[in-house]
């Protein structure tokens, strides 16, 4: 894979991240200003398909920088990322969102 292609994919990831940042910021603001008794916080195990430590680190950072989520721990074998989520009424949807928005693009950059 050429460096130009990786730069383009990295820029795409940046645009996706900014979109998630805005969307999550609005969602967290609504949750904080609304009835917070309805929140369902959770710690979720996200199975990883990334192969490199750099990829896993980038994913953990993307998750932590997105409002409403925090990366807690990566398993020793790099197969699972544990994430705290402010509101997760459907944990499977959170896993799917992380995998489709960030992990898929990071896998493409890994090559």
Overview of the structural elements:
Belongs to the CPA3 antiporters (TC 2.A.63) subunit E family. It is found in: Cell membrane. It comes from Rhizobium rhizophilum. It holds the Pfam family MNHE. The protein is α+β, with helices and mostly antiparallel strands and 111 residues long. The protein has one domain (3-110). 58% of the residues lie in helices and 16% in strands. It contains three helices and three strands; from the N terminus they run αβαββα. The protein is globular. The relative contact order is 0.21.
In terms of topology, how is this protein built?
Elements lengths: L2 H31 L8 E6 L5 H13 L3 E6 L5 E6 L5 H20 L1
Antiparallel strand pairs: 1-3, 2-3
Helix pairs in contact: 1-3, 2-3
């Amino acid at each position: 894979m050429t460096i130009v292609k990786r730069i383009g994919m990295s820029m795409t990831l940046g645009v996706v991240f900014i979109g998630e940042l805005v969307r999550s910021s609005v969602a967290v603001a609504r949750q904080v200003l609304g009835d917070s008794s309805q929140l369902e916080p959770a710690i979720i195990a996200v199975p990883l398909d990334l192969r490199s430590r750099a990829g896993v680190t980038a994913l953990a950072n993307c998750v932590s920088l997105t409002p409403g989520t925090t990366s807690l721990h990566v398993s020793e074998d790099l197969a699972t990322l544990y994430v705290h989520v402010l509101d997760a009424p459907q944990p499977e949807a959170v896993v799917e969102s992380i995998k489709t928005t960030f992990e898929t693009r990071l896998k493409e950059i890994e090559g």
